[in-house]
Amino acid sequence: MEFLYNLIVVLHFVGLASLLGGFIVQMKSPDKGVNPAMLHGALTQLVTGVVLVGLLESDVLDDEEAPNMTKIGIKLIVVLIITALAWIGRKKPAPQVGLWATIGALTLLNVVIAVFW
Q1: What is the pTM of this model?
Q2: Greater confidence, 41 or 66?
């Protein structure tokens, strides 16, 4: 079961890389907006995050402490907002600077919460 957990963690990081990479790749572009990498990364982060918490809460992993549900709840709210914004922006024509910047800022916020909390 530990292998499955680690595999889901890797997929969670791939989702983060896709979401943040989709944001960063457009920094110099005049037509900033939501690209497919951002949407797919947000969806991957959402699904794998829920699965990770489910695995931790199910007690199938040995020697794992219970997750901080306040932290998980805040991170879930942030990723739901990111996913909703990416979903809304997926069909809108560029430029979408405000939407693009909000998604990027919220993504960085989720990383900061994950690392420092």
Answers
A1: 0.92
A2: 41
